Amino acid sequence: MNSYTIALAGNPNTGKSTLFNTLTGLRQHTGNWAGKTVVMAEGEFSRGNTTFRIIDLPGTYSLYSNSADEEVARDYIIFEQPDVTIVVLDATSLERNLNLALQVLEMTPRVVVCINLIDEAKRLGIRIDLEKISQRLGVPCVSISARNHIGIENLLDQVEKVANGTIVPNPVQITYSDQIESKLAQLEPLIEKTLGSRFPTRWIALRLLDGDESLLQTLRERMQDPATTARKEPLTHGRTVCH
Fold first, then answer.
1. What is the CB-side half-sphere exposure of residue 101 using CA atoms within 13 A?
2. Do 44 and 51 form a contact (C-beta atoms < 8 A)?
3. Is 135 left (phi over 0), alpha (psi -120 to 50) or beta?
4. Cα–Cα distance, 134 to 103 (Å, whole number)
């Protein structure tokens, strides 16, 4: 039996937790992330011969470590490296939501973009061109209504294909100004020499150029004690959540 870990990322109010509940039902627990007051939710479900462990990351508007929620989501994607990250977008607010999607794509190629609330968009007369969005982003893109269980099987098909390597996404790479690109070219070899190729060197270089002190501190800690790589607390004081 195959087993994969899936992370759910998205802005607040995109229906991300509704999707989490739809997928996991009663098979979920809550607790706190290690050293944080941020609540984490973890669940599991099976599909055919495949078991999925799914982590509902805190809803955030960015991954620039401006808050504890953003740091938790950032660290999980970077250091735990889930098999697939599902980025949940609101079909009625795509322009705003795509900012987070692009940030995730700079961190990992193993992404499926999930456009939720498609029924609400249809009611408002909004038409979503999934094929064009998928081509532009370079990753699978599906539409769903988590609340009404529409499109869930298609979403899981794409997630499983990315997880098992049947689909190999090729995310769009954002090109910055000549000055920034020059600095990135200088930094990336140094970062790879220090950290190896496990982590996304371009993304780390961007964060260093941005003066992300939180990431610097986290990297220092993990280099000193690799065994603690993005480890979360056991679900002590956790509880089963029923819906």
1. 27
2. yes
3. alpha
4. 16
Residue 138 amino acid letter: G
Q: State which amino acid sits at residue 61.
A: Y
Structure tokens belonging to residue 223: 């280099």
Q: What is the pLDDT of residues 185-236, one digit of tens each?
A: 999 999 999 888 888 999 999 999 998 888 888 888 877 765 544 443 333 3
Q: 184-188 long-range contacts, Cβ below 8 Å, gap at least 24?
A: 184/209
Cα angle, residue 46 at apex, residues 77 and 57 outer, rounded to 5°: 25
d(CA 87, CA 85): 6
Starting at the edge strand found earlier in the chain, the sheet holding 2-10 runs 141-143, 111-116, 84-90, 2-10, 50-56, 39-47, 28-32, 239-240
